[in-house]
């Protein structure tokens, strides 16, 4: 026997679908939020401190003396030979301060000065004032052209002009005595990579310019007089 329509149960409505919740999309724990906030604050502080240190280091600068133009060794330094440069205050650097410019003018260069170099005390004669009528000249002698190990401040020497290496040898009988200038040792420098040595000597004012010109050619030798 077939059931009547009134006996067929009515279909029940399906329960409403719950929206799917992505895995891991729950609320961020409060502890994680606090950690991220602290990290952000620390990063900001580091950036601020770094910028402050850079600005401060850039501000710690000192005015020092630099060379403005070429100055031969032994020549008197003038105001036009110097300029001023601003450098970071570094203990490893020891240039002459700009405030000491007046004390440098009138002193003589102990070695050739070139534009752009920082001026140091070692590049200017800082010893006692030379006697009246004397001038200080820096003479660079090549390896073997001076008894460097035997030279000392106060020694009397002779600065001798040497012939050009390309100049033909003269007959020993007709060869004249080489030109020489009497001098006194003031300071002996250290040999450079090629063995050349800069020797500071004092000479009579009448011989200062002549000796500087001869020294510029590099063809000079130093003869030590007897100390006895």
The gyration radius over C-alpha positions equals 42 Å
The number of helical elements comes to 3
Topology as a string of helices (H) and strands (E): HEEHEEEEHE
Strand content: 15-25%
Content-based structural category: alpha+beta
Give the number of DSSP strands.
7
Distance between the termini: 156 Å
Catalogue the unreliable spans. none
Oligomer: single chain
Which strands sit side by side, in order, in the main sheet? 3-6-5-4-7
Mean pLDDT value? 77
Main sheet, how many strands, which sense, barrel?
5 strands, antiparallel
Q: How much helix, percentage-wise, in residues?
A: 10-25%
Query: Can you tell me the overall shape?
Result: elongated
Describe this structure in words.
With 228 residues, the protein is of the alpha+beta class. It has helices at residues 30-59, 101-104, 205-217; strands spanning 61-67, 82-88, 134-141, 156-161, 180-188, 197-204, 220-224. The strands form 2 sheets. It has a 5-stranded antiparallel β-sheet with strand order 3-6-5-4-7, with helices on one face. A hairpin with an 8-residue loop joins strand 5 (180-188) and strand 6 (197-204). It is elongated and about 145 Å long. The mean pLDDT is 77.
């Amino acid at each position: 026997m077939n059931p009547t329509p009134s006996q067929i149960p009515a279909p029940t409505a399906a329960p409403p679908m719950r929206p799917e919740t992505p895995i891991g999309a729950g609320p961020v724990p409060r502890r994680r939020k606090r950690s991220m906030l602290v990290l952000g604050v620390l990063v900001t502080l580091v950036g601020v401190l770094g910028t402050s240190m850079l600005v401060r280091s850039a501000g710690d600068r000192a005015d020092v003396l630099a060379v403005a133009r070429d100055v031969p060794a032994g020549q008197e330094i003038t105001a036009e030979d110097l300029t001023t440069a601003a450098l970071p205050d570094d203990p490893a650097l020891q240039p002459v301060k700009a405030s000491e410019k007046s004390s440098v003018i009138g002193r003589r260069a102990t070695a050739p000065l070139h534009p752009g170099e920082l001026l140091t005390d070692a590049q200017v004669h800082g010893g006692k004032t030379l006697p009246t009528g004397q001038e200080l000249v820096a003479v660079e002698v090549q390896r073997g052209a001076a008894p460097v190990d035997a030279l000392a401040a106060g020694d009397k020497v002779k600065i001798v002009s040497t012939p050009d290496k390309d100049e033909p040898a003269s007959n020993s009988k007709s060869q004249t005595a080489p030109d020489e200038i009497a001098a006194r040792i003031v300071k002996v420098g250290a040999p450079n990579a090629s063995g050349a040595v800069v020797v500071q000597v004092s000479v009579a004012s009448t011989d200062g310019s002549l000796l500087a010109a001869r020294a510029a050619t590099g063809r000079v030798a130093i003869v030590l007089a007897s100390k006895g």
